[in-house]
Amino acid sequence: MGKFVIKNTKTGIKFDLKAGNGEVIATSEVYKSLNSCKKGIASVQKNAPKAAIEDQTVEGFAKEKHPKFEIYKDKAGEFRFRLKATNGQIIAVGEGYKAMKGCVNGIESIKKNAADAKVEIIDKEEEEKPAKKPAQKKAAPKKAAPKKAAKK
Predict the structure, then answer these.
(1) At the N or C end, where does the chain have fewer CB atoms within 10 A?
(2) pLDDT at residue number 88
(3) In the chain, where are the structural domains located?
(4) Which pLDDT tens digit goes with each residue over 75-126?
(5) Rounded to an integer, what distance in angstroms lies between the CA atom of residue 118 and that of residue 7?
(6) DSSP E strands: which ranges in the chain?
(7) What number does CATH give the domain 3-128?
(8) What is the reported pLDDT for 132?
(9) Is the alpha carbon torsion for 98, 74, 101, 90 positive or negative?
């Protein structure tokens, strides 16, 4: 079973949808608040299972209604997808795949895993805090510098 993992970034908060094997299958935009991020997850859970697939890599492709997964080729020639909600906003994107089959498998995994995926929040700030250091010994008092001999 999949899970949504919420984590802080330098510019906000985002989620990744991970498949049962731990592989990231979709990523969100960066949100400004935890509440907005959770709404994004709810939208993926609601829309992904029923979303149609629109293959934009074929000439004269059939336009699908929202919600939908759009498959396209990026500048590097890899297949990618984006999930759009009923309102047309992008709510999740996938990584680049060398083959169309891998991209379609990623979409099918989201459709299968999103609806009942658990939500886990990772507090990145906690992860990045260094472990508590043991108490340091107090430094010994400094010795007075030897006095210079007076010149005659």
Answers:
(1) C
(2) 96
(3) 3-128
(4) 999 999 999 999 999 999 999 999 999 999 999 999 999 999 999 999 754 4
(5) 14
(6) 3-8, 13-18, 24-27, 52-55, 68-73, 79-84, 90-93, 118-122
(7) 2.30.29.80
(8) 43
(9) positive
Q: Where are the beta strands (DSSP E) in 11-51?
A: 13-18, 24-27
- Alpha-carbon gap, residue 47 to 52, rounded angstroms: 10
Give the residue among 15, 49, 39 at the shortest CA–CA distance from 29: 15
Q: Identify the residue whose tokens are 């899970």.
A: 3
How are beta strands 52-55 and 68-73 bridged, if at all? Answer: parallel
| Backbone angle region of 34, left / alpha / beta, with phi > 0 → left and psi within -120 to 50 → alpha | alpha
> Residue 76 in 3-state DSSP?
coil
Which residue's structure tokens are 């992860």? 127
Mind listing the pLDDT tens digit for each residue in 126-151? Answer: 444 444 444 455 555 555 555 655 55
